[in-house]
């Protein structure tokens, strides 16, 4: 996963200011919650009001992977082009794909390796939300050529000033986004 303390895998039940979250309007929040819990390892953090007929359920998978399910009396539809990407571990993707199929995902693609060194599981929830669970491929399975290009194209380089790594601006004026026309590596 990552060494960042802000993105530690594992479910936490603490209440914090969420830097970003998804809200889904659904006709039956209890039914939608069952799907996210059964298919993707979310937990129900709380329901308002508690019981069998809540109007809102707060779900969480890992820290900062929060979804609010809100009851809507109208037919809420998720528009084309909307996709939720969620970090996962490489090892859990096969099991999540199996469970998503079992509990009613309308589509399940993968998991499959991407050209950018991840393994992705793409599925559509019964509510119509396209979800991509993405995991970094382990070192021996990564594409070394892609990694080298990303290191070369990165807008910053890391240097160690004795106190730890420091980001330095790129000095290549062509940069990765405005390559010169005669540059061989594009």
Could you describe the 3D structure shown?
This protein is α+β, with helices and mostly antiparallel strands and 186 residues long. It has one domain (5-141): Roll (2,3-Dihydroxybiphenyl 1,2-Dioxygenase, domain 1). It is 17% helix and 31% strand. The protein contains 3 helices and 10 strands; from the N terminus they run βαββββαβββαββ. It has helices spanning 29-40, 93-102, 144-153; strands at 22-26, 43-48, 56-60, 66-71, 83-87, 107-113, 118-124, 130-136, 156-160, 165-169. It has a 4-stranded mixed beta sheet with strand order 1-4-3-2, covered by helices on one side. A hairpin with a 4-residue loop joins strand 9 (156-160) and strand 10. It is globular, with a radius of gyration of 20 Å. 17% of the residues are buried. Residues 1-8 and 172-186 have low confidence and may be disordered.
What does this entry show, briefly?
This protein has 186 residues and is an alpha+beta fold.
Total domains: 1
Oligomer: single chain
* Widest sheet: strand ordering: 1-4-3-2
CATH class membership: Alpha Beta
Q: How many DSSP helices?
A: 3
What fraction of the residues are assigned to beta strands by DSSP?
25-35%
What is the mean pLDDT? Answer: 80
CATH superfamily: 2,3-Dihydroxybiphenyl 1,2-Dioxygenase, domain 1
In terms of structural class, how would the helical and strand content be classed?
Answer: alpha+beta
Largest sheet: 4 strands, mixed
Distance between the termini: 30 Å
**CATH topology title:** 2,3-Dihydroxybiphenyl 1,2-Dioxygenase, domain 1
